[in-house]
Structure formats: structure tokens, C-alpha cells
Amino acid sequence: TAWSGGRLTVHSSSQGAGVLASDLATALEVERGDVRALGPYVGGAFGGKYATYAQTRLAAAAARKLGRPVKTVNTREQVFTATATRAATRQEVTLGARRDGMLTAVRHDAWSGAAIGSATVEAGGHHSSLTWYASPNIQVGAKYVPLNVPEATIMRAPGEAPGSFALECAMDELAGELGIDPLELRIRNHATTDPHSGKPWSSKHLLECYRTGAERFGWSRRAKEPGSTADGDWLTGTGMATAVFPALRFPATMKVRFQADGTAAVSGSTADLGTGMWTVLSVVGSRALGLPAHRIKPALGDSALSDAGFVGGSAGTASVGSAILAAAGEAQKALIKLAVEHERSPFHGLDPDSVRYENGRLTADGGPSEDFDTVLAATGRPGVEAEGSSAPDQSQDYAYASFGAQFCEVRVNRWTSEIRVSRMLAVMDGGTVVNEKTARSQILGGMVWGLSSALHEGLHFDSAGRPANADLAGYLIPVNADTPAVDVHFLDHPDTRFNALGARGLGEIGIVGVAAAVANAVHHATGKRIRDLPITLDQLLE
């Protein structure tokens, strides 16, 4: 952070440069326009960088007091206390069903532990059992337990990730009690409308996810009895789970600028959390303007740019992409206006309604046809630009969500209880897939994190409330040797009721359901049901 002439410039990774600038302006009691936040490359965020933490505010205050730049660097241990974690939960699920598997009642209560005064409550039942399966009776509850522990955050799939573990393991147990295949049980209880609101889904292809996933994974070859399949010293098992995440949109403003060098700039204060937002700006800009992607110049991560808001809730592409479409339309109108009004333009004096923009060219009915850079050169203008805004404007007659099915195979050593996940599959229905490579990376990353939640990650506190394993020796995460082959398949059915782009969120749904799929596979391999995460060797050896 550094001050110059009463203005602050801060370089910090954030899920919203504009939000960070506003927070700092409030904390330091200065005008919002006197703070500029820069963070073009965020790296991982996952909800942990949506808030402004104490070290950033302190660095800005110290820089003002000292009259020189100040940089703060957290140690590995400090990261566990100076930033935020996922809240611990305790959950109870009760399911009632007929003999044919049709649910008659769902009850899901969750207790969430978090720092005193926390704004984050991990409401697992509200984010899973309330809307996932058809049932005439659904009751969910959430309670918050104040603790002297570090602040919790809206970490990737808050509510959905822990809530799906409880619900989907319970569904697996119910399938076992009834002697029904776990996948078939979910198909029978498929909700054609949102069980909570009663509204129809804007677009839902979850049954296709189930059936496509079963075929790709080879689910039909699954042994019926748990613990009945072995490969030498290794017991093998398979499990699956449903994944659902609400489709959200936030207000966003973006700018599109036609430039005299033949490129088009697409810019806004949005962030790239490792989700591929740089690519999204290029791809959506290319589609909106009919230009090759290499002629699109994206810019983001700067609070001085158009206010694109906060990136989170898997709403980045849906929000920003819609704003780009709007900005592209406004920029085309501005270009045509310049072309017909400037006296040196080859389109001067023509009726604007007779001039159309298509794939980088302006064409008049029965008149000239020129590339936009030629028009700009003729008028002596370096560029012409316009902003476009998007806000949640989808019809309230529908419910909106992304859907998926997760499948997992595990191998458990019969002597040591060592667990190895041997393969994983996700089939996702997230609307239009804007960029397949980055979308696949999001789902793959979420699945690895789900595997990590199931078998590795666990933060432990001592009697003083300090993390006892705040390092990379005691706080385990999966490495390459722990990570199996991961297959990701998209259905790619556009949801144009949600937005003009047809795209719903894919950033968080990848982690939803994975921990349950792993636990269900462990049960299928061993016959032992583990309800605490992470699943450790001692739990299987008991």
C-alpha cells in the first residue's frame, strides 16, 4: 500500500477491487475516489478474499502514518488466523419413506460453530434438503454456536458442501435399508419443481446427469452387497451423490471500447479467482462483437475501471457476461452514431437505422461498408466506448440452479485400511459452457477439494482456541499421488430464462456432493458407515 497526494493505492488479491476500495475508504475515513485497489491476479479465493481483513487495513493506516509504502506478508501459521476458514458443523438428518423409496418426510438440522459475532452461519439443511428432493414434508433448521475461533467465511459452496455430505450419506443409508440402488432412489425422488417455492425450474436436466453418469462410470456393474468386491488385498467400492448449487446473478457494469488499432477493449473491475475470467472477457467479447478472440483486449482487477461488483456465489460469468453483452450493444450504437454524425466519416449524413454493425464492420443499406478501425481513422478518433449494465432480471416465475451428479470409486486396503480414490466422474448441467477448458478446470478443482475434505483436511484447535496444526505438515491436502483420474462431462443446455448468455454458475458445484460420494464408496467397499470428516484409518480399524 502507498499514499501519494492524499490518495491511496493498494495492491491486494480480492474478489472485488471496487468492494476492497470502498471498505478501505470507509475504514480510513476518506473519499471512495481517493482509494484505488489493484488485484489483476487473485490466485485462489474460494470466499476467503471477499472481505477486507485486518492486515490490509493496518498496512494502509501504517503507510499513511509513516509516509512511505508498507507491505504485509503473513506467515503460514498467520494465514490460519488472519484470514477466514469454513465453519465446523454438526448435522442431523431424518428421512421418512415408503417401501418403494418415495420420500414422505425430510428433517435436517445443522449447528454451525463460528467466531463470536460472525455473519456466516453454515446452514447445511437450507442449502440442500430444502430444495433437492420431492417430499410432501420438509423441515430444516440452523443454529449458530459462538466460539473463540478464527472468523468463518462463505467458503466454496457454503452450506451446500457440508449439507450435501449429511443429506447424501443419509440417502445412501436409506437406499441400503430399502434394498434400492442408491442412484435409482434419487431418480424416484427427482423434484420436477422446486420443493420449497413450488416454482418450476428454469432448466433442469438432472435426470440426464444421472443416466449419462451411470453409463460413463459403469454403474450397472456395481455389486449390490457392500464389502463383497475385492482385488487382492484391496476392497473396492463405488458411491455417488447429487450436486446442486443455486444460480445467482449480481449487478455488474462493464465497458466495451472499439479502438483505432482494430482491437476492442473489454474492461471492468471484476476479478479472476483462478476461474478463467480473463478468458471469459475475451470469449464473450468475441461472441458479442463478432471478432476473433485475439482482437479482444481484456482488463480487470482495478477499482478505477467500470464497477463490475463482487465475484462470488458462482455468479461471475453470468453477471459479467450479461454486462458485456449489454456493453457491446451500447458500444455498437455509439460507433454508428459517430459514423453518421462525423463529417469526415464515409457514413456521414446517413440515417442511423440504415447502418448496421456486423463482425467488426459497419454496412449501410445500398451504401459503404467499412471496418470499424477505418471509420475511427477517418474521424481521427482513437476509439469509441460505452458501458453496459446487468442486474438480476430473470423472471420470478422460475427457480434457478445448476445441477450435477458425482461418482466415485475407492480402494481400501483390508489390512491397513488405507483409502485410495481410484477414479471420479462429474456430469454437470450448468447451462451454456462459455469456455470448456476453464469450466472443466473449475469442476476438476472442486472435486479434488471435495476429496480433500473427505480424506485429508481437518483443522484442530487447542484448549486456548489456537489452531494446533496451522502448517502444511499437520494440515493435510491431497498431492498428485492422492488424486485419481477425474472425468468431467458437460451437458451444455443453454438456460436463456436465466440470462441471454444461457450460462449458470460452475465455480462451486464441483465440490458439492464429492465428500458424500467418497464416504458412500468407502461404505460400499467396507460395509462401514463413517459420518465424520475427514475419514481416517482409525475409524475404519475400529
The name of the CATH superfamily of the largest domain reads Aldehyde oxidase/xanthine dehydrogenase, molybdopterin binding domain
* Structural Rg: 26 Å
Mean pLDDT across all residues, rounded? 94
Query: CATH architecture of the largest domain, please?
Result: 2-Layer Sandwich
The run of helices and strands is EEHEHHEEEHHHEEEEHEHEEEHEEEHEHH
Query: Kindly, what is the distance between the CA atoms of the first and last residues, rounded to a whole number of angstroms?
Result: 53 Å
| Helix vs. strand class | alpha+beta
Largest sheet: 5 strands, mixed
Total number of domains: 3
Residue windows where pLDDT falls under 50 for at least 5 positions = none
CATH class of the largest domain: Alpha Beta
CATH fold-level assignment of the largest domain = Aldehyde Oxidoreductase, domain 4
Q: Count all strands and give the number.
A: 18
Shape: globular
Helix-strand blueprint:
Elements: E1 2-4, E2 7-11, H1 17-28, E3 35-38, H2 54-66, H3 76-82, E4 88-97, E5 103-115, E6 138-147, H4 160-178, H5 182-188, H6 206-217, E7 230-231, E8 234-246, E9 252-259, E10 264-267, H7 277-289, E11 296-299, H8 316-341, E12 355-358, E13 361-364, E14 369-371, H9 372-379, E15 383-390, E16 401-413, E17 419-429, H10 436-455, E18 485-490, H11 514-526, H12 537-541
Parallel strand pairs: 2-3, 5-6, 10-11, 17-18
Antiparallel strand pairs: 1-2, 4-5, 7-8, 8-16, 9-10, 9-15, 12-13, 13-14, 16-17
